[in-house]
Prior knowledge:
The chain is α/β, with parallel strands linked by helices. The chain has one domain (15-147): SH3 type barrels. The protein contains 3 helices and 7 strands; from the N terminus they run βββββββααα. It has helices at residues 103-108, 123-131, 139-147, and strands spanning 15-17, 39-41, 47-57, 62-70, 79-84, 88-91, 96-99. A 7-stranded mixed sheet has the order 1-6-7-2-3-4-5. β3 and β4 form a beta hairpin. The chain starts with 14 loop residues before the first strand and ends in a 7-residue tail after the last helix. Residues 1-8, 143-148 and 150-154 have low confidence and may be disordered.
Amino acid sequence: MTTLAPKMQSQMGANIVGSGVGDGPGPDVMAASTLDGTKVMSSDGEHVGKISDIMLDVRRGRVAYAVLAEGGFLGMDSTLRAIPWGALTLDTDEKCFFVDITAEQIRSEPGFDKDHWPTMADPQWGATTVHQYYNRDPYWSATRAASEGDVTDI
Length: 154
């Protein structure tokens, strides 16, 4: 996996690697609830938490963020962090997600707690607090380009 690079990366969805293709749903189309609790590994190979929620942008019909829960005991007092969906890679062999920044970078990201969620629909918060931190173009930029027929940046 790579670390933060100067150029922002455009990606509409999570990457999928591994050989885990079988009958039924997955890995290309899956119930969001099947991904809850999936461990997340950093680019330096450290287990940094588990997916606690998958946030949908209802108006655009897109997955907006995965919420990473890190620390705490039985979900209590955990630090939550929003990760752009396009910054994740699902490894079907390892049954985990990889994120392409280091564990220290993830721990340095401003998080939130279960009682004080940010306004995730706020484009300013999404662009500067989340997408820029993970070196990703905001997902709604890719949606706009696709709807306007310009798919060269996607």
